[in-house]
Structures are given as structure tokens and as C-alpha cells.
């Protein structure tokens, strides 16, 4: 007697989520900001920055926002934000990016204005490079502030 077999196939939502999340990770602005912010503070940290109070401010801003950016990068990559829906993530992103833009702009200006080319000062190249990257990071945060504002605005209009 012939037996009938029923085969049931199911599709896992994990593979669909994995493919969707891997495509969104192709370009990650937070990773770019993390690397550039790391350059800013490591270029200064390798010098005698503690002799100049202005570079202490730049170090504070660079390290503070680098740590926060790494924190948000981990939250983004692990998709933890989907597990905490009570937090208004668009507002958090807007406040974070906006404050980072303002403080990094001030730090970049302070950094650039503090770079001097004294003959006895061998830190000139590191400080000049940190100044350049501080402005690059400032522009990254400015762009992210704009996109965060657009995202926040579209959510508040709904």
C-alpha cells in the first residue's frame, strides 16, 4: 500500500532579518565617525597635549563622543534599539548628533587655533592632522544631525 507523505516547509524570519540587516550594514556612518574620532584623539594623545589646556578640551570632546559613538554603534549593530521601544530613538539621535556637532565644531576651531609651528615643538604635524580630522568629524556630525532632524521631523508629522 502506498504511503502518502506530507512535507511542510517553513521559512525562518531569522534569515530574512539577517539578509536585511547585512545590507543595512554595508555603509555605516557611525563606524566612519568612530574611526575619524579615534584619529583625532590618538593624534593628540601621542603628544604633550597636557601642557596646553586647549588640547585638553579637544581631548575631552573627542574621547567623550568617541565613547558615545561606540556605544550607539553597538546598540545599532546588535539591534538593541528594537528591544527598547520606550526610548524615543529619533530624538536621542538628534540630540546626540546635534550636541556632537556643536561641541566638535568648537573643539575643531580651538584645535586649529592652538596649532603653532615653533622650532622646539615637534608636535606640529600631529596637531595639524588632528585639527584636519576634527573638522572632518565635525562635518560628519553635521550631516548626521541633518539626517536625524529629517527623521525626527517625519516621525513627529505622522
Automatic annotation (TrEMBL):
PROSITE patterns according to UniProt: MARVEL
Residue ranges occupied by any MARVEL domain in the UniProt entry: 21-153
Cellular location(s): Membrane
Any one GO biological process: myelination
Keywords carried by this UniProt record: Membrane, Transmembrane, Transmembrane helix
Coiled-coil segments on the chain, per record: none
Secretion signal, residue range per the UniProt entry: none
GO cellular component: membrane
Chain ranges passing through the membrane: 31-51, 57-77, 89-110, 130-152
Bilayer topology annotation: Multi-pass membrane protein
Primary localisation category: membrane
GO molecular function: structural constituent of myelin sheath
Entry keyword Transmembrane: yes
PANTHER family the record matches: CKLF-LIKE MARVEL TRANSMEMBRANE DOMAIN-CONTAINING PROTEIN 8, MARVEL-CONTAINING POTENTIAL LIPID RAFT-ASSOCIATED PROTEIN
Protein name as annotated: CKLF8 protein
Taxonomic source organism: Malurus elegans
